[in-house]
Amino acid sequence: MEIILIFLSSAIVNNFVLAYFLGICPFVGVSSKLSSAFSMGMATTFVMVITAIVTWLIYNLILVPYNLEFLQYVSFILVIASLVQFVEMFVKKVSQPLYRALGIFLPLITTNCAILGLALFIVLKEYSFIEGIFYGIGAGVGFTMAISIMAGIREEIELADVPKAFRGAPITMIIAGILALAFMGFAGMISV
Amino acid sequence: MEPTLILAIATMGGLGLFFAAGLAIADKKLAVEDNPFVVKINEALPGVNCGACGKAGCYDFAVNVAEGTASVTGCPVGGSDTAKEIAMIMGVEAADSEIKTIPRILCKGGNSEAVNKMVDYYGPLSCSAMEIVSGGEKQCLYGCLGAGDCVDACPFDALVMNENGIPEVVPDLCTSCGICVKSCPRDIIEMHPIDQTVFVFCKNQDDPRTAKEVCNVACIACGICARKSDGGIEIINNVGVINYSLLDDTKIPFEKCKTGAIQKIDLELDLGIKMKKN
Asked: Which residues in chain B are contacts of A161 at CB distance < 8 A?
């Protein structure tokens, strides 16, 4: 039960993008096409889940026993950077068009605050291993959901008659704001 | 030495080594060789990503050429120069590229021909919006809407709206990409070889009486051209349709067409005038 609540909490109620404002740059940068937005969401989810697993292991099995908690940022960043590098190689091997569509935003997952945020939240909230994994999956699903909704709306906006002054970045920010407003409706439903 | 210091160095060093080794293995296992042909072909292409070749973009086309699944002359935008360059990269002879095709706007019913208005339209000025909302101002439900979606869509500025509210093609700028064809909600624009001279400039499928009412230059399906054409022209859904493979334009009595919907255009005059506009 606790696990389901944690999952729902990180996916919807405390959505990383729309409630915590983490990971905004790919949220805006790669959300112009639904297909690449979804792939970006998948890549981020993958990195998030593996990060949750590996950082939990490193923190609880290496850093805590040797009183090296002060190394958490450095070691987490190391984990995340390695994982992103791996994902980049993998995507390039599997799908060249996707690799080109994600462009600079793929390596930018490295410094995506949503992912470092995830690793730090797990430490902060003192989650168990299983809870940490589900928190990671929830965060990834939440991110994928947010970026896909955004991309879906932006694809529709392409066809709409947007006033000239609002075209491009402004209307995107407005949409993001309204989406965040909508997700505020979930606020406080689960407090995990 | 402080034990924490040694531990810290050992931990970070160990982790670093571990991940570095992992990535080194992944790099070997997941290595992708960039095909040098693809890179060179991609550079030779116009890089507009218009999709006229039927591929997802210039890079995708380059990949297909390098793999032999697309023709070296497959880029209509680059024309024969690009084809030659790609052929040189691939080490093959470029066949003479086909005759250039240009879009033809098959409606002559501008503001001075389709005079009777159905409604006063105040919505967004785009053909696709007009088509959804009210079918535009003109009574003709098949003709050009005149808001210039094709002009906006053309990435090469090869379409201009004339004073009469009908778009015109500037053949010199046109690269035969066909984007305008897709942009027209009424499918009035068709791609034709540049030396094609006979067209039915009307798509109106109304019965002859309505057609005559809504536009002065509509095809009223009288069938005079079809009868003389030996199958070159057929009246389908109240409008003349040309079968270019059977067409013999010497047999068509153009002067007998009362509304002038079917025309043999003077290439020099037609294209010459537009070239001057440049």
From this structure: 124, 126, 129
B2 assigned to some structural domain? no
Number of domains chain B contains:
2
Three-state secondary-structure class, residue B233: strand
CB B173 within 8 A of CB B158: yes
Q: Both tokens of residue B171?
A: 């053949």
Looking at this predicted complex, what is its ipTM?
A: 0.76
Query: How many Å lie between the alpha carbon of A159 and the closest alpha carbon of chain B?
Result: 10
Residues 6+ apart with CB under 8 A from A136: A48, A49, A51, A52, A53, A118, A122
Domain ranges, residue B250: 101-277
Asked whether residue B128 falls in the same domain as residue B241, the answer is yes
Q: B13 and chain A: CB distance < 8 Å anywhere? A: no
In this predicted structure, the answer to whether residue B277 has a pLDDT above a threshold of 50 is: no
Chain segment B21-41, per-residue pLDDT in tens: 999 998 888 877 777 788 888
Contacts of B56 in chain A (CB under 8 A): 97
Same domain for B89 and B105, yes or no, is no
